[in-house]
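Researcher: Here's the sequence for the chain we discussed earlier.
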Amino acid sequence: MSQSSSPVEFRVPPVDAVALETRAAALGTRSIKRAAKISGLKLAVAMMDLTTLEGQDSPGKVRQLCQKAKRPLPARDEVPSCAAVCVYPDLVPEAVAAVAGSGVAVASVATGFPAGRIDRAFKLREVERAVADGASEIDMVIDRGAFLSGRYGEVYDEICAVKAACGAAHLKVILETGELKTYDNVRRACRIALLAGADFLKTSTGKVSPASTRPVVLLMLEAVRDHYLETGTIVGVKAAGGIRTSKDALRYLVLVNETCGDLWMTPKYFRFGASSLLNDVLMQLEKERTGRYQRPVDFSAD
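Model: Thanks. This is the structure I predict for it:
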């Protein structure tokens, strides 16, 4: 382990991969009754960070995204708004203006998303700018090069510095689990982020495959549960990347409930990073209401 300004210990026990994957698979087969399914689908909407992180993003696209986050199904008031919209730092002011008064938060990626390969001073300035422009949540990426080289102290120190730069804004730490490769690495990265003060652990940027998987999210949920039992501090989990169907969303909610319990069954402590997921959930809600599937073209693309 490299030198760090903190004497914290980053050792973690090895992960039993067979047990982890077996439990994740078993929980994915749980049957859900209709009333619970409808409630779960609405909760999934309320837990979504509706996201656009493309080079072609524009103010108009962000305004459309914000409108959809505020009223996912305009004709149905019982369908909740999304938890947040997630955009690049330069589009934070546009998003803040578009969601004003709605209760939808504005999250911004930062620290050189998605690679994180820029100077730390630039990373901190990017965070400070996004917060100054009104972002109440920051999604940072860890330096995977430092982590995979064993420079865990550098990763810890950088998360601490970003956390300080966030001020009152919540910090989601993106582990990019697809690049960490092993469950042992994921568990260690969780430990580092938790000790550094993360408000959320997040699976991925959505730019690397594999992104979110149920075994990885189960491992992260176990990490935040154990952290809570050890410290009394609740840290959230955000599953992002590759979650496209309502069936997937419900399976993740089963993981949350069975692993962490009711405390985490809220947008305050569990989120989906979503773009295409929202429309599939809305289609399922309409199918449950009408008995027939809507066409995808009946829902806005943004």
